[in-house]
Write a structure and sequence with these properties.
Elements: E1 5-10, H1 12-30, E2 36-41, H2 45-52, E3 60-67, E4 80-83, E5 93-101, H3 105-116, E6 121-129, E7 142-146, E8 152-153, E9 169-172
Parallel strand pairs: 2-3, 2-5, 5-6, 6-7
Antiparallel strand pairs: 1-9, 3-4, 8-9
Helix pairs in contact: 1-2
Bound molecules: 1-O-pyrophosphono-5-O-phosphono-alpha-D-ribofuranose and guanine (GUN).
Protein backbone atom coordinates (compact mmCIF):
# COMPACT_ATOMS: atom_id res chain seq x y z
CA UNK A 1 0.00 0.00 0.00
CA UNK A 2 2.75 2.52 0.99
CA UNK A 3 4.54 1.60 -2.24
CA UNK A 4 1.77 3.29 -4.23
CA UNK A 5 2.55 6.67 -2.65
CA UNK A 6 4.69 9.17 -4.55
CA UNK A 7 4.92 11.75 -1.78
CA UNK A 8 3.69 12.28 1.78
CA UNK A 9 2.19 15.79 2.02
CA UNK A 10 1.09 15.75 5.66
CA UNK A 11 2.61 13.37 8.18
CA UNK A 12 0.87 11.33 10.85
CA UNK A 13 2.44 13.52 13.53
CA UNK A 14 1.34 16.77 11.88
CA UNK A 15 -2.22 15.42 11.65
CA UNK A 16 -2.22 14.36 15.31
CA UNK A 17 -1.01 17.79 16.49
CA UNK A 18 -3.58 19.55 14.34
CA UNK A 19 -6.42 17.38 15.63
CA UNK A 20 -5.54 18.28 19.22
CA UNK A 21 -5.41 21.99 18.33
CA UNK A 22 -8.76 21.90 16.49
CA UNK A 23 -10.43 19.82 19.21
CA UNK A 24 -9.37 22.36 21.84
CA UNK A 25 -10.68 25.17 19.64
CA UNK A 26 -14.02 23.35 19.42
CA UNK A 27 -14.13 23.03 23.22
CA UNK A 28 -13.93 26.82 23.50
CA UNK A 29 -16.40 27.36 20.64
CA UNK A 30 -19.12 25.05 21.97
CA UNK A 31 -18.64 25.30 25.73
CA UNK A 32 -22.08 25.40 27.38
CA UNK A 33 -23.86 24.46 24.13
CA UNK A 34 -24.95 21.00 23.04
CA UNK A 35 -23.96 20.87 19.36
CA UNK A 36 -24.77 18.11 16.94
CA UNK A 37 -21.50 16.98 15.34
CA UNK A 38 -22.19 15.59 11.89
CA UNK A 39 -19.58 13.37 10.27
CA UNK A 40 -19.72 13.21 6.49
CA UNK A 41 -19.06 9.60 5.56
CA UNK A 42 -17.03 7.95 4.59
CA UNK A 43 -13.98 10.19 4.36
CA UNK A 44 -14.39 12.14 7.61
CA UNK A 45 -14.41 9.08 9.85
CA UNK A 46 -10.78 9.13 11.15
CA UNK A 47 -10.70 12.93 11.45
CA UNK A 48 -13.99 13.04 13.36
CA UNK A 49 -12.81 10.37 15.75
CA UNK A 50 -9.50 12.16 16.39
CA UNK A 51 -10.74 15.75 16.88
CA UNK A 52 -13.74 14.91 19.03
CA UNK A 53 -11.64 13.07 21.60
CA UNK A 54 -10.07 16.50 22.31
CA UNK A 55 -13.42 18.33 22.37
CA UNK A 56 -14.29 18.48 26.04
CA UNK A 57 -17.91 19.55 26.00
CA UNK A 58 -21.24 17.76 25.82
CA UNK A 59 -22.15 17.02 22.22
CA UNK A 60 -24.20 14.63 20.15
CA UNK A 61 -22.89 12.75 17.09
CA UNK A 62 -24.64 11.74 13.93
CA UNK A 63 -23.54 10.74 10.43
CA UNK A 64 -24.57 11.55 6.93
CA UNK A 65 -23.31 9.49 4.00
CA UNK A 66 -23.09 11.51 0.81
CA UNK A 67 -21.19 10.74 -2.34
CA UNK A 68 -20.40 12.57 -5.54
CA UNK A 69 -17.08 11.12 -6.69
CA UNK A 70 -17.86 7.41 -6.95
CA UNK A 71 -14.76 5.76 -8.39
CA UNK A 72 -13.63 8.91 -10.23
CA UNK A 73 -11.12 11.64 -9.37
CA UNK A 74 -13.53 14.41 -10.36
CA UNK A 75 -16.86 15.31 -8.81
CA UNK A 76 -19.87 14.11 -10.81
CA UNK A 77 -21.44 17.44 -9.84
CA UNK A 78 -24.35 15.56 -8.30
CA UNK A 79 -24.40 15.01 -4.53
CA UNK A 80 -26.25 11.82 -3.60
CA UNK A 81 -27.53 11.14 -0.08
CA UNK A 82 -26.64 7.54 0.70
CA UNK A 83 -27.68 7.81 4.38
CA UNK A 84 -29.51 10.70 6.00
CA UNK A 85 -29.23 11.86 9.62
CA UNK A 86 -31.22 10.11 12.33
CA UNK A 87 -31.48 13.37 14.29
CA UNK A 88 -33.75 16.40 13.75
CA UNK A 89 -31.65 19.51 13.15
CA UNK A 90 -34.32 22.16 13.70
CA UNK A 91 -33.07 24.68 16.28
CA UNK A 92 -29.75 22.85 16.74
CA UNK A 93 -26.20 24.15 16.49
CA UNK A 94 -24.55 21.97 13.86
CA UNK A 95 -20.88 21.25 13.33
CA UNK A 96 -20.20 19.57 10.00
CA UNK A 97 -16.98 17.55 10.04
CA UNK A 98 -15.35 16.94 6.66
CA UNK A 99 -12.09 15.49 5.42
CA UNK A 100 -11.74 17.82 2.40
CA UNK A 101 -13.37 20.74 0.63
CA UNK A 102 -12.49 20.62 -3.04
CA UNK A 103 -15.16 21.83 -5.49
CA UNK A 104 -17.26 22.72 -2.45
CA UNK A 105 -20.36 21.10 -3.98
CA UNK A 106 -20.80 18.57 -1.14
CA UNK A 107 -20.72 21.19 1.59
CA UNK A 108 -22.78 23.75 -0.33
CA UNK A 109 -25.44 21.09 -0.68
CA UNK A 110 -25.31 20.11 3.01
CA UNK A 111 -25.32 23.66 4.37
CA UNK A 112 -28.32 24.56 2.19
CA UNK A 113 -30.11 21.39 3.27
CA UNK A 114 -29.54 22.04 6.98
CA UNK A 115 -30.62 25.69 6.66
CA UNK A 116 -33.78 24.53 4.90
CA UNK A 117 -34.33 22.16 7.84
CA UNK A 118 -34.08 25.21 10.15
CA UNK A 119 -30.81 24.56 11.99
CA UNK A 120 -29.97 27.37 14.44
CA UNK A 121 -26.35 27.57 13.26
CA UNK A 122 -24.12 25.62 10.88
CA UNK A 123 -20.32 25.57 11.16
CA UNK A 124 -17.78 23.57 9.22
CA UNK A 125 -14.49 22.06 10.29
CA UNK A 126 -12.41 20.42 7.59
CA UNK A 127 -9.05 18.71 7.78
CA UNK A 128 -8.08 19.74 4.25
CA UNK A 129 -8.95 22.67 2.04
CA UNK A 130 -8.13 22.68 -1.68
CA UNK A 131 -9.09 26.25 -2.66
CA UNK A 132 -7.93 25.84 -6.28
CA UNK A 133 -10.67 23.21 -6.83
CA UNK A 134 -13.55 25.46 -5.81
CA UNK A 135 -16.59 25.91 -8.06
CA UNK A 136 -19.23 26.43 -5.32
CA UNK A 137 -19.26 29.38 -2.93
CA UNK A 138 -18.40 27.87 0.45
CA UNK A 139 -15.82 28.45 3.20
CA UNK A 140 -14.97 26.42 6.28
CA UNK A 141 -14.91 27.98 9.73
CA UNK A 142 -11.92 25.88 10.78
CA UNK A 143 -9.28 24.37 8.47
CA UNK A 144 -6.51 21.94 9.29
CA UNK A 145 -4.27 22.24 6.22
CA UNK A 146 -4.39 23.72 2.75
CA UNK A 147 -3.46 21.26 -0.01
CA UNK A 148 -2.32 21.91 -3.58
CA UNK A 149 -4.34 21.07 -6.67
CA UNK A 150 -3.59 17.34 -6.56
CA UNK A 151 -5.73 14.30 -5.82
CA UNK A 152 -4.80 13.31 -2.27
CA UNK A 153 -5.39 10.04 -0.41
CA UNK A 154 -5.05 8.68 3.11
CA UNK A 155 -6.51 9.34 6.56
CA UNK A 156 -10.06 8.75 5.30
CA UNK A 157 -9.57 9.83 1.70
CA UNK A 158 -9.79 7.11 -0.92
CA UNK A 159 -9.01 6.29 -4.49
CA UNK A 160 -11.46 3.62 -5.64
CA UNK A 161 -12.18 2.82 -1.96
CA UNK A 162 -8.51 2.10 -1.18
CA UNK A 163 -5.99 4.03 0.97
CA UNK A 164 -8.49 5.35 3.57
CA UNK A 165 -6.48 3.55 6.27
CA UNK A 166 -3.16 5.26 5.50
CA UNK A 167 -2.11 7.25 8.60
CA UNK A 168 -0.91 10.24 6.53
CA UNK A 169 -2.04 12.35 3.55
CA UNK A 170 -0.20 11.61 0.35
CA UNK A 171 -0.24 11.68 -3.43
CA UNK A 172 -0.37 8.51 -5.51
CA UNK A 173 2.21 7.55 -8.11
CA UNK A 174 0.72 8.33 -11.53
CA UNK A 175 0.94 4.68 -12.62
CA UNK A 176 -1.53 3.69 -9.87
CA UNK A 177 -4.33 5.52 -11.62
CA UNK A 178 -3.15 4.84 -15.14
CA UNK A 179 -1.18 8.07 -15.61
CA UNK A 180 2.36 8.39 -16.96
O1 LIG B 1 -15.79 19.60 -2.26
P1 LIG B 1 -16.15 18.40 -3.09
O2 LIG B 1 -15.60 18.49 -4.48
O3 LIG B 1 -17.64 18.12 -3.08
O4 LIG B 1 -15.39 17.15 -2.47
C1 LIG B 1 -15.41 16.82 -1.12
C2 LIG B 1 -16.07 15.51 -0.87
O5 LIG B 1 -15.47 14.47 -1.68
C3 LIG B 1 -15.20 13.35 -0.88
O6 LIG B 1 -16.35 12.55 -0.74
P2 LIG B 1 -16.77 11.41 -1.79
O7 LIG B 1 -17.94 11.90 -2.59
O8 LIG B 1 -15.58 10.94 -2.54
O9 LIG B 1 -17.30 10.28 -0.79
P3 LIG B 1 -16.49 9.46 0.33
O10 LIG B 1 -16.24 10.42 1.48
O11 LIG B 1 -17.40 8.36 0.71
O12 LIG B 1 -15.20 8.99 -0.29
C4 LIG B 1 -14.87 13.97 0.47
O13 LIG B 1 -15.02 13.04 1.53
C5 LIG B 1 -15.84 15.12 0.58
O14 LIG B 1 -17.06 14.74 1.18
N1 LIG C 1 -9.53 11.06 -2.20
C1 LIG C 1 -9.90 12.28 -2.54
N2 LIG C 1 -11.19 12.61 -2.54
C2 LIG C 1 -11.52 13.87 -2.89
N3 LIG C 1 -12.71 14.46 -2.97
C3 LIG C 1 -12.51 15.72 -3.36
N4 LIG C 1 -11.20 15.97 -3.54
C4 LIG C 1 -10.56 14.83 -3.24
C5 LIG C 1 -9.17 14.46 -3.25
O1 LIG C 1 -8.24 15.22 -3.55
N5 LIG C 1 -8.92 13.17 -2.89
Amino acid sequence: MHNDIKEVLISQEEIANKCKELGEQLTREYDGKFPLAIGVLKGAMPFMSDILRYTETYLEMDFMDVSSYGKEMRSSGEVKIVKDLDTKVEGRDLLIIEDIIDSGLTLRYLVDLFKYRKANSVKIVTLLDKPTGRTADIKADMIGFEVPNEFVVGYGLDYQEKYRNLPYIGVLKPEVYGGE
